[in-house]
Amino acid sequence: MAYELYYWDGIQGRGEFVRLALEEAGADYIDVAREPGRGTGAMLAIMKSESEPHIPFAPPFLKDGDLIIPHVANILFYLGPKLGLTPENERLRYVANGLQLTVTDFVAEVHDTHHPIDTSLYYEDQKQEAKARSAAFIRERIPKFLGYFERVLRQNPEGTNHLVGGALTYVDLSLFQVIEGLSYAFPKAIAKRRAEYPGLLALHGAVAKRPNIARYLASPRRLAFNEEGIFRHYPELDGAE
Questions:
Q1: Structure confidence by residue, pLDDT tens digits, 162-214
Q2: Same domain, 101 and 137
Q3: 55 burial via Cβ count (<10 Å: 0-12, 13-18, 19+)
Q4: Which of 64, 83, 102 is the last residue of a domain?
């Protein structure tokens, strides 16, 4: 039975972290919002259900049979062993989960660069606040998070090709997506700091060349970044430092 991924159509968003794992593993899955006749209505029906015993608060969520798993890190913690994308060492699986939760924190801060006041307001309604938030993000938060992941990669006892353990995990795929997204949203800021993160950039390049990932990136299933998703490019924010 195919996995069912529920997320908004038209954007990569948080759902992309799950898609990358499914695509790398060659898993059979359905991107429900893109299915004719189902769309986001099927997702909203589950979220608003008055009878479903374990309703998710928000997408993305994954349906495996009658089991519904919400939240990116939780979904990947569930999928990792099934897809061969988590360390065999059980203790390291919790390390991987901790790293993925840190990615979650980082992505939330990325989102808040363009919506620092209220998610229900348009970007144009909070542009000045977004400039201030982005300046702090570029100056302080990008180096804090990427510097941390660079150190984790460098200090991995099993080598510097992966963040945890000696083989590819879903965390490596997620860091690939983070670098992709930041390079789209803040190209000038990232260009200035590229020399500071050689390990992460090497990891990004290696993931992009993996056969299944390369095919996915070249396919119509990989939507382009746009100004409706989490990683948005507003030139006035890229020069905010």
A1: 999 999 999 999 999 999 999 999 999 999 999 999 999 999 999 999 999 99
A2: yes
A3: middle
A4: 83
Q: What is the CATH number of the domain that holds 14?
A: 3.40.30.10
Regarding whether 123 and 58 lie in a shared domain, the answer is no
Q: Taking the model in full, what pTM does it have?
A: 0.96
**Domain containing 41: what range?**
3-83
Number of domains in the chain: 2
CATH at residue 140: 1.20.1050.10
Closest CA to 107 of 174, 44, 193: 174
| Model pLDDT for residues 74-99, shown as the tens digit of each residue | 999 999 999 999 999 999 999 999 99
CB atoms within 10 A of CB 70: 17
149-165 burial, b for 16+ CB within 10 Å, e for fewer? bbebbeebeeeeebbbb
Tokens 């939240």, located at residue: 71
Q: How many residues does the chain have?
A: 241
* Short-list 164, 169, 227, CA closest to 20: 169
Half-sphere CA count of 87, side-chain side, radius 13 A: 19
